[in-house]
Amino acid sequence: MQLLGSECQDMDIALSEIMGLTFAQYLADFASTKGVQTGNISKIAQNPDQSKHLETATFKLFGFDLDLVNLRAEEYAESSRIPTEVSFGTPLQDALRRDLTINALFYNVHTRKVEDFTEKGLDDLKNGIVRTPLPPKETFLDDPLRVLRCIRFASRYGFDIVPEIADAAKDLVVQEALVTKVARERVGTEFYKMITGRNPLRSIELIHEFNLYHAIFSVLPPDSKDLLSHTPEYITSSLAASSILSLLLGRETAQTSDIPALHPLLLSATKADPSCISRLYLGATLTPSRGITYKDKKQKDQPVVELLIRESVKLGTQNHYLDGVPLLFVASEMIKQPSLDKFSHPSKRVALGKMLREKAVHNPHTGSHWSSSFLFSLVQELVPLYNVRERSLDVQGVTQIMKLYNAFADCVEKLGLADTGDAKYLLTGREVQQALEVPKAGPWIGEALNKVFDWQLDHPEGTKDECIEWLKQLRDSGKLKITDNKSEPPAKKIRMK
Questions:
Q1: Low-confidence residues of the chain, pLDDT below 50?
Q2: Which pTM value belongs to this model?
Q3: CA distances in angstroms from 349 to 267, 325, 331, 415, 419, listed in the order given
Q4: Residues 278, 373: contact at Cβ < 8 Å?
Q5: Whole-angstrom Cα distance, residue 326 to residue 303?
Q6: Which of 137, 434, 194 shows the shortest CA–CA distance to 313?
Q7: Cβ neighbour number for residue 228 with a 10 Å cutoff
Q8: Residues 6+ apart with CB under 8 A from 238
């Protein structure tokens, strides 16, 4: 990171004659004598079956996350890629076991110089090349996760990947090892770093180029596969959706002069919420599973997108991936073809406002914002118009669909509805109850509040007093039925003999 001029909050420290945990304890004790506080020391144990060959110690010092591990040398049996012996090694032996030449550079704390034992790392860093120190297949079978790390670093820095890596990544033995030897949490962490990085699209392109999509996004519990409503037909729709998303976000320039500019309002959530873009890319990547369901333990249909996020990449609820991304697909079905003709009754302002407040479309508790829901819906509608092989769009078809979405956003803006999703009711439930002189609240309160919000949508300048007067008229006309629980006769009890 020092050579790239970038800041870094974590350090990997390689030790030549002592184990990481022992050194960490010595270092923490020494720091305490100088009045320096350190974080708790944690140990990550070896797990060769999951390609974790060394014990690692971790803790915080001066705000940095430190990983301490000894230099390693390994010996393998002919029939296995799991080392039969891991011992202290030389810097060269350790460097050759690293994932990439650019990650095999050492900084000698004694000489304060960068040391390149592979004799390729500095040149590769200078020339923007991703290369493995040893033959790629050997490196990947040592730890198959390195396939994804090659993709991530190439995308992060805009580096080129040598052809040998691509060939090894496509090897079925390597792909099977990625599925069977690597914990899904580690796979998910790498993909998370891709979609939150500088160039998510490049990562997704490489995943498809290396035929790795199934190894990442099709790993499900064995008992769930037979419960799917159907299987994905075209995984290339993942690349199509991601490419279109990147284009709409302004990260790709191809054909941007041939299609209409996207209404700025549809990009508002991507600018206000840092996690929004990664959520959209995750959804785009999972487009092949759109509309597929599975049976849960209660035999209810659930979206397989949720199952993939939870089990295949184990991303969880951070950035609202698990609870927010499945809703993007639900919202896209509700939104598609948003012609303003659909929102003419009873009043355009009321109809538009109610759509913007649909829970699947706009819900802060799941990270959903109506603008990102509409953006994702647009992406999904444009997928059939994208030619993956030629990387081209049907400009005429795209223009027609984008006009619908831009017209919708323009109408929302002109009617002042952009913040409707977060708007509060003009009256509270207690105020409604008091205004209508009902001694006890009941289920009718919910219906009354919905009517209140419809009224305030239709009367943006209306006051509380005017709303209360309207509500009373609604009650008097019988259009709002109020049930006083106290006036209801008690339920009869039947004794069983």
A1: 50-52, 76-81, 84, 486-497
A2: 0.86
A3: 22, 28, 20, 7, 13
A4: no
A5: 7
A6: 194
A7: 16
A8: 204, 208, 213, 217, 284, 285, 286, 287, 288
